[in-house]
Amino acid sequence: MTKTNTIITAGGSGRRFDKKQKKQYFEIAGKAILYWTTKVFYEHNQINKVIVCTPSEDVEYVSNLLQDFSTKVVITKGGQTRQESVFNGLKSCDKDTEIVLIHDGVRPFILTHEIDSLIKQTRSDKAVIPVTKVKYTIKKFHGRLIDCTVNRDELFEVHTPQTFAFDMIYDLHDKAKKEGLNLTDDAGLCEYYGIPVFYQLCSSYNIKITNPEDSAIANAIMRELYNKGDVRCV
Asked: Looking at the domain covering 4-233, what would its CATH class be?
């Protein structure tokens, strides 16, 4: 079986969500968002190891939060940027890792069969990201005026886990660090260095919980997944 690790980034301050609590620790269905996110990868039969990147001051807290998963989960310190945190996570992967999934800690609703499919495609395509089609009309503006309407048939919303051949994405992160390059996502590194990135459509469940109003949506999704017998809800 292909050696596969997952890196979960959990370093956000979440100040837009709650001034007193980081969003990854906000509870839905009685558990922290980060708990549910970790659970689905921990219980996935193709994931050998889960590396959770967290701020240094939160390492002990996160270790206690995820103690149910200690046999397969490693907590590591994040960096000053998301890219730095991911690189720290890559350094914590097993040396014989072949595929790595890089996932946002506040996306607890990626589905098991979607993880299966991403891993399968990455064996051949090396860099694969989950996307959903843009549902709303998108307009560009200049100053206070609408400039034009963008053809939404040519647009996707990008989700995670972004999934890569391990050696390739490690080398790109190493190169970016040496060159002082900092981008917002890992697929962006591939694009910058001319590596083709492929996509798969994922479900609209795979939301990123960012704002307070997202919590109501998250609880509704959790109830629906529970009714369907999803692994994270058992």
From this structure: alpha beta
